[in-house]
Amino acid sequence: MYCTNRDHDDCTFSTTLTRVGFALVHTYAMEFLLDKYGVDLAIWAHEHSYERLWPMYNYTVFNGSNTHPYTNPRGPVHITTGSAGCKERIDAFGDKPHWSAFRSSDYGYSRIHAINKTHLHWEQVSDDQDGKIVDSIWLVKDKHVPYQLLREAEAKNNIK
């Protein structure tokens, strides 16, 4: 849905089919569904790299806060984890936009630990660096509700 690789795949375009669906009618658009149902984490692959994004919707970052962006975020977190390795090596990255939090070109793999109904722990392990954890986040959500409702409630509270 989102990526910053320079390989001209679907995820490099703002009108990617997985994000907005078919042109004009927008059927089969997934981003709306991720937002509507308050999906915590969207895991993507088939890019030969690793990239973690800030919580976002429609190219807008919705961090939980400046100090704890993944605690009660107001949009899904997207992670592309396709760095397991292949004979093609890696996909090169383009410029890093404001919505990309971390990128790695190392061969590696991801681990996810579901601690309980509110806490997920994510790690990216580098094979190129002998098992070093190169990325790690805690994703915490106290309530599982549609993100649109959270953003509307926040906007209402800011008006008062």
Uncertain runs are none
Q: What coarse outline follows from CA principal-axis ratios?
A: globular
Question: What does the radius of gyration come to?
Answer: 16 Å
Termini separation (Å)? 36 Å
Query: What's the helical proportion of residues?
Result: 10-25%
Sheet with most strands: 4 strands, mixed
Number of helices: 3
Structural classification: alpha+beta
Strand order of the biggest β-sheet: 1-5-2-6
Mean pLDDT: 87
Number of distinct beta strands: 9
Strand content: 25-35%
Written as H for each helix and E for each strand, in order along the chain, the element string is HHEEEEEEEEEH
Protein name: Purple acid phosphatase C-terminal domain-containing protein
Domain Purple acid phosphatase C-terminal: 75-136
Pfam families: Metallophos_C (PF14008)
InterPro entries: Metallo-depent_PP-like, PAPs_C
Helix and strand layout, with pairings?
Elements: H1 17-20, H2 30-36, E1 41-44, E2 50-53, E3 56-57, E4 60-61, E5 77-81, E6 100-104, E7 108-114, E8 119-126, E9 132-140, H3 147-159
Parallel strand pairs: 1-5
Antiparallel strand pairs: 2-5, 2-6, 3-4, 7-8, 8-9
